[in-house]
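I have a small job for you when you get a moment. Would you make up a two-line entry for one protein for me to read? No commentary is needed, just the two lines. Write everything out right here, beneath this request.
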Amino acid sequence: MIDILVSQNLVSSKAEAKRLMTQNAVKIDGKICNDLAHILKKGCGELVIKVGKRRFLRVLS
């Protein structure tokens, strides 16, 4: 999950991604994601990742 946030430019570094996840600022489909080892699986359909108030990413798998 951290690598996705960094590679899609939602955060500037892995440290920032970890900090935001521990502060409950990352949501997947409206549910808080604070698990640093969270893995997105293929075939989940469409997911919306929200970081903070203004950064969104739609993932199709």
Notes: The beta strands are 26-28, 31-32, 46-51, 55-60. The chain has one domain: 2-60. The longest strand covers residues 46-51.
